[in-house]
Structure formats: structure tokens, C-alpha cells
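hiii so um. not sure if this is the right channel but i have a protein structure encoded as C-alpha cells and i wanna go backwards to a sequence. like what aa goes where. can anyone help
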């Protein structure tokens, strides 16, 4: 791993913009945002683009907007399809792409104009197959950008490991849209047919590059306020039918590629999440509360033979193992302890932190 402080890739002159970038835009009922999103792609300083607008059966004005841009710019092509979910939209975009490089965008977000030029230039200068950038959180009241400007060059599976560590210094995330990569590395990889489709896909993708670059510059603008956004969904039944199975499948995949160490790291966060989901379900008005509690308890108890190994990894927080042991001893005592922690201990820590900062 090499860290390049204040690194700025060189511009790519128009005459050297010979390799095509295919941008697959997922479009679904986002007509209030779609013009800005498409225009941010068409205004990129890297001009050799193929913009694939995949309309996933929108019922608003999105189909008309898509067709308008296809008529105006030869780089744009539109695919109208029946509604099938985000994973089908992404896969249709992959199949339609003809560029040497591939990127994704959701139809309610937008890009800074040098995003693709800078990411591609960085990839070429560093000999990388994949580039990942930071993104801005866009709220109604403010935009949050904590970029540092540094670039980190990672070899082999180093980026996969950083992603699984969930290190906030590396905003790699599950998101498909903060990444640019050589289409050739996909080698048949597609998004799985389920919700939270990018969770397993990202693990599989990050295993493929020989070298990757992480650019800690926020080129992508992610809307956080839109309640119907593709990514802005709360806890629901699909946690149990899709998200949790994705987490287990990631562990299976990691063991299958011979990275038991990373599978243990993945499992550490898996069981941490299961405990969090259990607490959320208990405190919710979930009509399936009883069934979901039983489901989570069964999953948590089924892993207990491996907890000694999982919580022994260097990355593990001992407090998480104590929480797990308490749950296994008594879910009732665990719920009481979490209620005390959230109502008394956490606010006290926040107040103390505020005092110490003064």
C-alpha cells in the first residue's frame, strides 16, 4: 500500500481520450432529479462516453426525459424495460456496455465534471484496474465533504480487506456508483437477483483487480434526503430475505477464495449486525416481530461454536464479545443492558465529549 499525499492526476487531452467509458444510469421514478444527473455525465471533461440510460419501468416523466437526451446527444442510448429492480437495471447496463471502462450512476445523484477524467488518469498513471472515490453527502441544509485529497495505491486484495474492515478513512462502500473499472475484469460477474445486490457483488469485484486506487476526493454527490431514493431505505422485511443472506454468502465466497482471515472479519461484522437488528426489531412496531426475533436468535445461536475464533481476530472489540455472551446467556438481560446503555451511558459519553472539547 502506497499513500500519495495531495495527489492530482494529470489531465487527459481530448486527442488522447481514445478509450470509451460506458456509464450505466439506473433510472426509476426520479424525474425531479434526472435532468441534473444526466447533464452531469454529459458535461464531463472526459468526452469519450457511452451513456446508457436504463429506464426500469418508470411511471413518471423519466421515459420522456431519457428519450429527449438520446435525441440530443449521440453518446446517449436508452433502454426501456419492465420494472425488475435495481439488480436487473445494473445487469442490463453491463450487457449493453461497449466501452473499455465501466461506471454506474443512480438517476437522482450527480457528478463533479472532472470525475471520470481524474479517475481514469489516476488508473493509467498508477497501472490500476479499478478506481474508487469518496462522495459528498448532500442534505437539504448542507453538503458534507470530508475529502483529504490523498490517493492510496493498493495491491491485490488490499482494497478488499480495507472494505471489509469498514474503515471510515476509506469510503469504499457497497455503492456501485463511486467506482470506475476496466470492464474486462468483470469476467462474467453480475449483480445477484436480490435486494442489497451490491453487497456480495462488491466483495467479488474487489477480489479481481491486480492493483486498485482509492482517491480520497469527493467527486460524486449523493442525495441523502430523498425518502424514495434507491439507497435510502430503512429496516424492513428484506433485511431478513435479502440483506442477511447476502452477508452469509459473502462469508462463503471469502472462504472459497482461500481468505479465511477475511471471512472471520466479515463474520465479526455479521454477528454485530445481527445483534443490532435484534435490538431494532424488539423496539419496533414490526407486525412480524415475534417471527423476526426468533429468526435472529436462531442465527445468532447457530454461530456460537465459532465465536471464540471470530472474536479472537485482532480487529475485534472485546465489548462486542461481552455483548454476545450476554445475549447467549439471556436475551432478556441483553435487552435490559442495551436499554440502559442507550438511555444513560451513551448520552453521558456525548456530554463528556462535549465538555472535553471546550
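sure thing!! here u go:
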Amino acid at each position: 500500500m502506497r499513500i500519495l499525499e495531495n495527489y492530482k492526476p494529470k489531465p487527459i487531452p481530448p486527442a488522447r481520450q481514445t478509450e470509451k467509458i460506458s456509464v450505466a444510469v439506473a433510472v426509476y421514478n426520479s424525474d425531479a432529479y434526472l435532468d441534473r444527473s444526466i447533464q452531469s455525465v454529459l458535461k464531463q471533461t472526459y468526452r469519450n462516453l457511452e451513456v446508457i440510460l436504463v429506464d426500469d419501468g418508470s411511471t413518471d416523466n423519466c421515459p420522456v426525459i431519457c428519450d429527449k437526451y438520446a435525441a440530443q446527444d449521440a453518446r446517449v442510448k436508452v433502454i426501456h424495460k419492465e420494472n425488475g429492480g435495481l439488480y436487473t437495471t445494473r445487469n442490463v447496463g453491463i450487457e449493453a456496455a461497449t466501452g473499455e471502462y465501466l461506471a454506474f450512476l443512480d438517476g437522482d445523484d450527480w457528478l463533479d465534471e472532472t470525475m471520470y477524467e481524474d479517475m481514469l488518469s489516476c488508473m493509467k498513471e498508477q497501472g490500476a484496474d479499478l478506481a474508487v472515490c469518496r462522495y459528498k453527502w448532500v442534505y437539504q441544509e448542507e453538503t458534507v465533504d470530508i475529502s483529504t485529497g490523498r490517493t492510496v495505491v493498493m495491491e491485490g486484495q488490499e482494497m478488499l480487506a480495507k472494505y471489509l474492515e469498514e474503515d471510515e478513512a476509506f469510503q469504499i462502500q457497497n455503492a456501485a456508483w463511486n467506482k470506475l473499472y476496466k470492464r474486462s475484469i468483470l469476467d462474467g460477474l453480475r449483480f445477484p437477483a436480490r435486494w442489497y445486490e451490491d453487497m456480495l457483488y462488491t466483495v467479488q469485484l474487489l477480489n479481481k483487480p491486480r492493483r486498485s486506487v482509492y482517491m480520497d476526493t469527493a467527486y460524486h454527490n449523493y442525495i441523502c434526503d430523498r425518502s424514495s431514493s434507491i439507497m435510502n431505505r430503512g429496516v424492513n422485511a428484506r433485511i431478513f430475505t435479502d440483506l442477511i443472506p447476502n452477508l452469509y454468502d459473502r462469508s462463503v465466497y471469502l472462504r472459497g477464495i482461500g481468505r479465511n482471515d477475511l471471512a472471520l472479519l466479515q463474520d465479526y461484522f455479521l454477528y454485530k449486525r445481527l445483534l443490532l437488528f435484534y435490538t431494532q426489531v424488539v423496539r419496533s412496531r414490526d407486525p412480524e416481530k415475534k417471527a423476526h426475533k426468533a429468526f435472529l436468535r436462531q442465527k445468532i445461536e447457530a454461530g456460537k461454536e465459532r465465536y471464540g475464533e471470530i472474536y479472537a481476530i485482532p480487529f475485534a472489540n472485546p465489548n462486542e464479545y461481552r455483548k454476545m455472551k450476554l445475549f447467549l446467556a439471556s436475551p432478556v438481560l441483553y435487552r435490559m443492558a442495551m436499554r440502559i446503555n442507550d438511555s444513560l451511558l451513551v448520552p453521558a459519553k456525548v456530554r463528556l465529549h462535549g465538555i472535553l472539547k471546550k
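oh and DSSP finds twelve helices and eleven strands in the chain.
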